[in-house]
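Q: Can someone sanity-check these two? First one:
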Amino acid sequence: MIQLEQRIFALDRLGEFLRNINPNDSNYDSLFEVINRAKNVNGWFSSKNVLYAFSQWGDCLNTKNLTKWTNSYTFLKKPPKTVGLVLAGNIPLVGFHDVVSVLVSGHKALIKCSSSDPLLIPFLIKKIQEFEPSFVKSVEFTKDRFKNLRRYNCNRK
């Protein structure tokens, strides 16, 4: 399992990437390509709106914020569980908080993206995995129905 500090560091690096978006920097060519593809899939995803969503996540994903957030919780050293996430697609990156919550907690995310937003979150996951290759084992995407996942009541003690 990836240590909490490594998870925070990788998310901070993603935040840094998103805070420094520059159309003149070739490191961002793939980001602008995915924005254009997302706009073709969902006409509501204007470049301006998608860049705004990336910018907001860039501001949130920094070591200070992530440490403050995670200090509120106790992460038990138990084997990670697989958490199924069915993500909405009505707003760019609307389901990304769910993904970040699963990853920062040390669990595995099984993600079913909305057909209205099938590109943006996989792009961000690929970036996180570039920054911390151990995350490759922590995320899986599916287009199928979830099978063999147990339901848990999050409010149960």
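And here is the second, same format, sequence then tokens:
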Amino acid sequence: MTKHATRKKRVAHGDMSERDISVIPESSKTALREAMRLEDVPTTQFQDLLWIMAQESSGEVGARNPHSSARGLFQLLRNNYELDPHGTDSFGNGVEECQGGIRYIQQRYHSAARARKFWQKHHWYRT
């Protein structure tokens, strides 16, 4: 089952709850701040990126979806692993997982706010 199908199933069963950003460990918040600095992302996007991270992985570095190829803090699918600075070797490194997520979000949505809006409407975001 794909990540999209898993989310659609969750929504179909009435589980439309959103995770609060308080689930994210401090180490993942720190990794996100550093990745934003490295990727030259304005700090105004921090809360939206953090919110997306909470929905996708609860801030668990190296998170894996057992139903798809989705991995990492922002649950990139296999066809987007190259967005991480060192591809699959970046998994397990919070900063690099954040860099890949930021790169994906910037390419597809142009801002974290737009990605969050899409997620809130569909309860997933395309990867």
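A (reply): Looked at the second one. Residues 27 and 94 are 8 Å apart (CA to CA). Confidence is low (pLDDT under 50) at residues 1-14.
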